[in-house]
Amino acid sequence: MEGYTVQQLANLAGVSVRTLHHYDHIGLLKPSSRTAAGYRLYRSAELRRLQQILFFRELDFPLKDIRRILDDPNFDPIFALKEHRHLLVAQRERLSQLLQTLDKTILEFSEETMLLSDEELYEGFSKEQIERYKREVREKYDPDLVAESNRQVKKMSKAQWKAVGAEGDAVTRELAALAADHAPTDPAVQTAIARHHAWIENFYPCNAATYAGLGRLYTDNPEFRAHYDNFRPDLADFMRAAMVYFAEHSLSD
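^ thats the sequence. predicted structure below, dont judge the formating
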C-alpha cells in the first residue's frame, strides 16, 4: 500500500478529516506525498508523528508548542514517549483521587447519609403542632435532657433516623402482642422493655427516675396514650407498669 488517505488516517487515529487538513495547513503534519489526483497520502513516519501530536494534545499542549517540540533537531521520540507515559500515569492517579473524593462527597450528600432537616424530623405534623410540641417540651421537661435529645437527633443521618423509627415501631408491636397474655412483670415483657429502654437511649441517657417518669407520661399525656393505645387498647397502661417495674428492678438513678 502506498499510504493512508486522509480519510483512512482519520478513521485509524480517531480524529476528523478537518483536523488533519488543519494540521497540514499549519505545517504540523504534512502528508508524505499526494496521489496523481492530488489526494494526501500519509506513511509510517507521519503516523508516528501524529501519535506524538495526539499524546501532546491529550496533555493540553498548544499546537504551536507541539510543532516547535517535534521540529526540534534534538527531539528524541523514545524519550518523549516515556515522558508521555509518566505524565499520563500521574494524570491517572490524580483522576483516581478526584473520583474517590467525588464518591465520598456523593455519599455524604446521598439520601442515606444526609443529616435530618427540621422538616424531615417533624414530617407529618402541621406547623402549629410543631410549635406547640416545642413549647410544651420547653415548659414541661428537663432542659438538659431536651437539649441532649436534640443533639442526638441532629447527629442522625436519614438512614439512622429511619432505622431508629423502625426499631421503635417493632418494639411497640412486640409489647402489644405480649400484652395479650402476659403480666407487665413477666420476664418476656421485661426483655422487651429492656429493648424499649435501649431504644429510648438513642435520644438521651435514661436512668431509673427518667424512665419511670416516661412511663407515667405515656398514660398522662393524651397524645402519647392515643399513640400507644392505637396499637392495642390500654397498651399505654401496660407499658407504664412494665417500665416502672423495669426502672425499679433493673436501672439505677
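The first strand starts at residue 4 and ends at 5.
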